[in-house]
């Protein structure tokens, strides 16, 4: 299982409103750090 799938599965397992907040934060993080690695 790759890291992106693990992150998405973890976020999906969270209750709202936490899930919504984490989805927004994850999208922003990916935009800001578009050339970065999710995990080493």
- Class by alpha and beta content: mainly alpha
- Please report the total strand number as a whole number: 0
Low-confidence stretches: none
In percent, how much strand structure appears in the residues? under 5%
Distance between the termini: 15 Å
The secondary-structure element order is HH
How is this structure best summarized?
This protein has 40 residues and is mainly alpha-helical. The chain has 2 helices and no strands.
Care to describe what's here?
There is one protein chain. The protein is mainly alpha-helical. It is 62% helix and 0% strand. The protein has helices spanning 3-12, 18-32. The mean pLDDT is 90.
Write the layout of secondary structure elements.
Blueprint: H1 3-12, H2 18-32
Overview features:
single chain, 40 residues, 2 helices, 62% helix
């Amino acid at each position: 299982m790759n890291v992106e799938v693990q992150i998405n599965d973890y976020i999906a397992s969270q209750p709202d409103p936490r899930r919504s907040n984490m989805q927004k934060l994850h999208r922003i993080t990916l935009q800001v750090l578009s050339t970065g690695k999710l995990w080493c």
